[in-house]
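[Meeting: bench + compute handoff]

Bench side (C.D.) handed over the final construct sequence. Compute side (W.E.) agreed to return the predicted structure before the next meeting so the bench team could plan truncations. Sequence as handed over:
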Amino acid sequence: MKKIFVPLLLTYIFSAQSASASIDVEELENLEKQGKYQIALDLIEPWRLENLSQEKALEVLLLQAKIYRKQGRYEKAISTLDYIEQNHYLNTPLVRTLNNEKGINYRRMSRLEEAETHYYRALKAAQELENNTLIGLAYSNLGTLYDHKNQLAQAMQFQLKAQDYLKGSDDHSIKASNFYNLGDISVRLDDYEQAEIFFRWALAEDKKHGEIVAIADSALRLSQVSFKKENHLLAIENINEALKYLTQTNANESLSRAYHMLTSSHLKLQQPDEALVNAHLSLDFANKAQSSVQLIYAHISVSKAYLSLQQPHLAQNYVTELADLVAEEAHAPLAIHYYEVAAELAFQQKKMDVAFSFIQKALNARRLNDVKVNNQKAQTYRNSISSLVQRQQLEVSEKEKALAQSQLQHNKLMQKAWIIAGLSALFICALLTYIYFIKHRSANLAAKLYQQNLKQKEKLLADISHELRTPLSVLKLHIEALEHNLFDDNSRAYSKINDKISQLNALITDVYQLSQAENNAIELNEQIQCVRTLSENYSYDIQRMTESHKLDFSSEINIPQGATINIDKPKLDRVVTNLCKNTCLYTDSPGRVIFKMYQHKEHLNIELQDSSPTVTDEEIPKLFERLYRVESSRSRATGGSGLGLSICKSLVELMSGSIDIKRGTLGGLDISISIPIK
C-alpha cells in the first residue's frame, strides 16, 4: 500500500506545481489596478517565468517594473527594465515602452537629465509608430519633467500639445494623466478655477480606466483645490469619494493625508467633533506609513481639533510631540504651523507672554517663507520665460532649417519635374511613332490579308471550277454519245450520267455547307441524347461502310450507363459520316479500321484509326484545307471533293469541340474528336 501511495502523492504534488506555475497576466493587471502590489509581486516568481513563453514573460516583466515604480522602488524597476533590454529583441514598440518607463523612474529619482534623454527616445519611437496616443503620452511626460525643472510655461506647452494628440484617444489612463498634470501646473500658477476643471476631467477618465489608486489620487487633488477655494463642503464630498477608493488599498500615507484634509475642512466649518475623529484616523495611518512629514501634519490636526474643543490639557501632549518632530524635520512651513498651534495652546492656558512669543516667531517665519516662496516663484517665472525664449529661438532655427531644406527639396523637385517633362515628351514622341508604325503595319497587314483572301477566293473558284469541269465534261461526252447512238447499252450511259450529277450535287452541297460554317451562318439545334445509343448507331454504320470496302472493323466503346450529352445530333452524324467515308476512301484493301468512343472527364471522345497508306508530317496540317487531296500518297483514285475534312473541322468547332489528325499505330492516320459534355 505504501509503495502505491507515495508515487501517487508525488504525481499529485508535481501536477499541482505545474498548474500553479502558469501566470495569468490579466489577473496581475487587475491586482495592479486595485493597488494590491505586493500580492501581484508574490505571484511573479523567477521559477514561474522560466515556464512562460518569451512573449508572455516580457508582459509579466514589464508589469513587474510598473509595480516597482508605483511602490517607489525605482532602482528595482530600472534593474528590471535593463534586464528586459539585454534579453529581449528590441522592436520599436518595446523601445518606446522601455524608454517611457525609464524616464518616469529617473524623473521620480530627480535624475532629470537622464529622464529627459529617455523621454525624447520614447517620443521618437512613438512618432515612428505614428500612434497619436503614444505621442501624446510622450509630450505629457516631457511636460511633467519641465514642471519639475520649474519651467512652467514650457511644461504647459508640452501638456497642451499632448492634449491635442490625445483627442479621440480611448486610452483613459493616459488622458487622465495629462489632465492631472495640467491641473498641477494650474495650481502652481494659482489658477484654481482651471485646476478644478482639469482635475474633474482627470477623475472622470480615471473612473473609466478603473485604477483605484489613480481614482483616489485625482479625487484627493480635486478636494485640495476645493479647500483652496474655501469650498469646504465640496472638499469634504471629494475627500469622502477618495476615501471610498483609498480604503481598498494599503496607501497609508495617502489615507493619512485624506483624513488630515477632512479634519481641516471640518474645522473650517466649525465642526470640532467630526474634526477630532478624522484627526485621530490621520494619526493612526501616519504611524503605519512611517512618514515623518505626514506624522507632523497628523499631530497638527489632532492638536487643532482638541484646541477647537477648548481642551488644551488634551492637546498639550500632541503639541509637545509636534515640537520634537518639527525640530527634526527643519521645514519652514511646518514650523509655522507648529508656532500657530503652540500660540493657540498658550493662549488657552492663559500664558499670554508665551503666546505672543510664538505669534512673533510665526510672523517672522512666515515673512521669511513668503520671501523665499516669492523668490522661488520669480525664479520659476524667469526660468519659464528663459526656457520659452530658448524654445522659440530653437523653433525659429528649426523653421529656418526646415525652410532651407524645403527650398532645396523644391529645387530638386523642379529638376526632377523638368527631367520628367523631357522624358514624358520623349515618351509621347516614341508612343506616337510607335502608334503610327503599328497603324501603318496594321494597314499593310490588312492589305496583305485582303490580297490573300482574294487569292484564296480566286483559288477556291478555280478549284471549284476545276472540280465542276471534269464531271461536266463527262456529262457532255455521254450526252453527245447518246445523241449519236454510240452506246450499245443506253441504260448504262444513263447510270453514268446520274452518277456524275450526284457527284456535282454533293460537291455543291459541300461548298454550301463549308461557306455557311465559315461565316457562322449555321445554328445549332441541341437536344439531350443518350451517348450509349449514339455509340452503338455509329459503330453499326461504320461497320457496314467498312465491310462494303472490304476492310476489317473493330470497335472499342466505353460509355457509362445513363450518360447523356446536349448536342446537335444531325451535325455530329455528318461529321462521323464524313470521317468514315474519308477513312474508307483512303485506306488500301485489305486494311483495318478501329472505331473508339469513350467518355473522359467532361468530354466525349471519338476516334477513327486506319491502316496504310499514311501521309508525311508536312502534309498532315494541310488535310483540313479546302479541296486538298493527297492522291500521290494514297494510291487509289478516290473521287472525293476534298472538302470533307474542312467541313468536319468547322462543324466540330461550332460545337465547341476540337479535331486532331496524327499518324496512327496501324500505319495510317488517327483522327480524334473531343466534344464537351454539357
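W.E. noted at the follow-up: Confidence is low (pLDDT under 50) at residues 1-21, 632-638. C.D. will use this when planning the next construct.
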